[in-house]
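pinned: reference chain
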Amino acid sequence: MPASPDSLAPRNFGTGRMWSDALGRRHTGAVFLLLALCTSPVNATGAEPDAATSASVAAMTSAPTAPADTRPSQGSELSAQLGKQLKQTLQSAMADGGPVAAIDVCQLQAPAIAATIATPGIHVGRTALRVRNSNNAPDPAQIKILQDFERRLSAGESAETIEQFDSADDGSARYMKAIVTQPLCTTCHGTELPPEIAAAITQRYPNDAAVGFAPGSLRGAFVVEWSSSQ
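pinned: its C-alpha cells
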C-alpha cells in the first residue's frame, strides 16, 4: 500500500517500515552522489582538476568554430576549368588553322572563355612575369607570388601543388595556381619561332615578352579573385 502524505513527517515506525525508509534514502542518496560526481569540479580523488583537464572541458563547451573557407578549393576548380577549356580550344584551332589560328585564340577567345567561367564578385584570368597581352600584367603582389612559384618549381616541387591563397580582412581574396609550359605552348612561346608565327605575334602584340620558354618552366599562373564583401 502506498505511503500516505503523513508518512513524510518524522515518526517512529516498526522495524519493517524503518528498513524500507532506509533503502529509499540510500537509493536517493546514490542518485545525488552520481549527479554530484558528474557536475562537481573535484575529481574522484578529491583533488582539483589539473590544467589539462580544465582545458579539455573548456574546449568541449566552447562556442562552435566558424566554417572553413571554401574559396581555395573553389579557386582550384575554376583554374582547372579555365585551363581545360583553353587547351581544348587551342588544340582545335591548331588542328584547323595551324599555329597562327592559335594566336587568335589567345588574343580573342581566351578572355571570353575566362569571362564565362567568372561569376559576379569573382574574377578569373591569367598572369605571368613575361606577358604577351598587357591586360594580363601582374600587380606587385602577383609578381612576388610568381617569383616564389619559380623558386618552388626550380627546387623540384610538383607543379600540381604550387598554388597560393591569400585573404584580407575586408573579405577579398586571391588564389593563384602555377601554369607550367607544355610542349604545345612552345609553338608560340618557345625560344625559336618560325618566321610566319613571329610575324603574326608582332602584328598583334608589338610589345610581346612571352617568348623564350622551355617545356617544364613556369609559364605563368591562373588567378581567381574575390571582391570585398564590404
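why pinned: The beta strands are 122-127, 163-167, 173-180, 218-226. Residues 1-42 have pLDDT under 50 and may be disordered.
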